[in-house]
Every structure is written in structure tokens, then in C-alpha cells.
Amino acid sequence: MMEVYRPEWCETREDWSVFLFSPQNRFRRVCQSIIAYKMFDYVVLAFIFSNCITVALERPKIMQ
């Protein structure tokens, strides 16, 4: 069987995000600190809820 090709740099950057951002990268640390706030969860849920409302209002006369 064919084996998955894994370049050498993949193994050395295994703990990197998207093989691009190191664990010490400033952008990655800022994103992690934003996601750690509980308010972030509420904001995401508010956007999902508002999206559901707008989809429902977009086509109110759907034939059933």
C-alpha cells in the first residue's frame, strides 16, 4: 500500500498551528487569549442566533 508522504519539516513543526505559527508566535497567543474569554462564546452564539433569524426572515413564504 501507499504510505502518506510526510516531509521532514512536517515532523519538526508538528506543534505549530497550520504548520505556520509557532507556539511562541504573537498572533497565535493573542488569538488564544481572545478565545479563552467566556464572552467570546456568547458573541459567537449571538451571531449564530442572528443568522438563524435572518435566514428565517429571508423566505417567510416557503411552501410546505
From TrEMBL:
InterPro entries: VDCC_alpha-1_subunit. The chain crosses the membrane at residues 39-57. It comes from the Eukaryota. The keyword Cell membrane does not apply. The keyword Transmembrane helix applies. Keywords: Ion channel, Ion transport, Membrane, Transmembrane, Transmembrane helix, Transport, Voltage-gated channel. One of its GO terms (cellular component) is voltage-gated calcium channel complex. One of its GO terms (molecular function) is high voltage-gated calcium channel activity. One of its GO terms (biological process) is calcium ion import across plasma membrane. This is Ion transport domain-containing protein. It comes from Hucho hucho (huchen).
